[in-house]
Amino acid sequence: PDTTTVSQYGVMRIAGYLLSELAQRYGTPLYIFDRATIINACQHYQEAFRQYYHASSVRIIYAAKAYLSPLIARTMAEQGMGLDVVSGGELSVAHHAGFPMENVSFHGNNKREDELYLALQLGVGRIVLDNWSELERLTRIAQETKKTPHVLLRIAPDVETDTHRYLQTGHAASKFGFPLNNGEAKAAIHAVLQEGRLHLAGLHAHTGTMLRETRPYEECLERLLDLATEVYEETGWWPEEVSPGGGWGIETADGVEVPGVYMLAQALQQTMERRLADNAALPVPTLIIEPGRSIIARAGVTLYRVGARKPTPGGITYLFVDGGMADNIRPALYGAHYTALPVEQLATPGEEVCISGRYCESGDMLIERVVLPQMREGDLLLLPTTGAYCLPMASNYNLVPRPAVILIDEQQVWQMERRETYTDLLMRYTE
Ligand code: LLP
């Protein structure tokens, strides 16, 4: 036998399950979420923020766009988290899961009329309005349905962030929010107050995602509180809640360190205290924080099976896996860095390879360069930290069925999404 590929130690487990057995049972590519890691992340956030805030003055809302399924929604509810949704689809999953609607915030920059009706009908706790059209649309619907939705206005606070261009959302030219620095934000607050149809609960901003410093959050919160103070002096309105959004980063294969979440909690508390020192008589607004990635990314891994190893005369050796850009577009779209591990410990010499997918694109690379023991057809490869924004952005490119998704803990495996079949694909065609 070719002993060079016989595994030496041979096992890699998550929550006690052999990954090779999970791959056998559910097929590959397979997305695996570890329940304990999700719960830890929620508790970690809550503990960090409760060091600096009373439990009643901070709300932590999971940004469902990072990954949502009914079971994840129920897990978030059990952990006392709120939920941030951005579409009728996400809202429907939350509703189907029995998520308490009063703890749901409905975000987005172009919510359709039917989505706003649905949100009101289901009794969503907060609607975050992005622009004048949305504001008018919701006001009209509130009038018609005789409801008084609680809203936050999303502000573009003109804060720069040190993250990929596609992941910045708080700058002056951002597509999101009422611009602060041309007076529109203030005008929108006045308009809501004057109209009186909507209950203006507070102000919201989100400056970007994959942030690794507290500065943008501090600047953002300062600007929201300064705006609120000006409006207070003009009208007597004061926010019940303020939110600098989500966006806290995670450590990835690029090796940049991310400070602990408690640093964020501390920075926000200090900013709030400093900014409100002159308004001591006013109630401190509830802080709302909306983490997505930093709750779910580390809990998810992807298992792929190697289909071929192809050295090229151009010097690159490819390792082809059975998934790729359709289940994880992030490397192609943002230059995101991942690393990979062979599931079985191989005694082969190390080599530099490019982990490439099965899709008909040269840009279909999950990892451009990584050193791995030489792998061959049939071996299993694991990509850690793929829990956020991979599956939600997955497509059926090349008409490849989307992978199965499981959640595991030491007692149980839940199949959250079954692998798509050719029948699923065919069902969408009507001619
Ligand atoms: N709140 C708001 C208003 C947001 O727009 C977002 C993310 C979050 C919270 C959660 O951000 P997080 O904590 O997950 O960073 N597809 C991109 C990420 C887009 C995030 C959009 N908004 C990616 O794969 O990196």
Automatic annotation (TrEMBL):
Q: Which residues bind substrate?
A: R293, R330, Y334, E361, Y389
**Catalytic activity as recorded in UniProt:** meso-2,6-diaminopimelate + H(+) = L-lysine + CO2
In the record, N6-(pyridoxal phosphate)lysine modifications are located at K65
UniProt entry tagged with the keyword Isomerase: no
InterPro entries hit by this protein: Ala_racemase/Decarboxylase_C, DAP_deCOOHase_LysA, De-COase2_N, Orn/DAP/Arg_de-COase, PLP-binding_barrel
Q: Where is the Orn/DAP/Arg decarboxylase 2 N-terminal domain?
A: 36-297
Q: Where, by residue number, is the active site?
A: C360
Q: In which pathway does it act?
A: Amino-acid biosynthesis; L-lysine biosynthesis via DAP pathway; L-lysine from DL-2,6-diaminopimelate: step 1/1
Keywords in UniProt for this one? Amino-acid biosynthesis, Decarboxylase, Lyase, Lysine biosynthesis, Pyridoxal phosphate
Cofactor dependence: pyridoxal 5'-phosphate
GO terms, biological process: lysine biosynthetic process via diaminopimelate
The UniProt record lists the EC number as: 4.1.1.20
Please tell me which top-level EC class this enzyme sits in.
lyase
Which Pfam families does the entry mention?
Orn_Arg_deC_N (PF02784)
| One GO MF term attached to the UniProt entry | diaminopimelate decarboxylase activity
Q: Which domain of life is it from?
A: Bacteria
Which positions in this protein are listed as binding pyridoxal 5'-phosphate?
G247, E290, P291, G292, R293, Y389
Tell me the PANTHER family matching this sequence: DIAMINOPIMELATE DECARBOXYLASE (PTHR43727), GROUP IV DECARBOXYLASE (PTHR43727:SF2)
Give the UniProt family note. Answer: Belongs to the Orn/Lys/Arg decarboxylase class-II family. LysA subfamily.
| Role according to the record | Specifically catalyzes the decarboxylation of meso-diaminopimelate (meso-DAP) to L-lysine.
Q: How does it assemble?
A: Homodimer.
Protein name per the record: Diaminopimelate decarboxylase
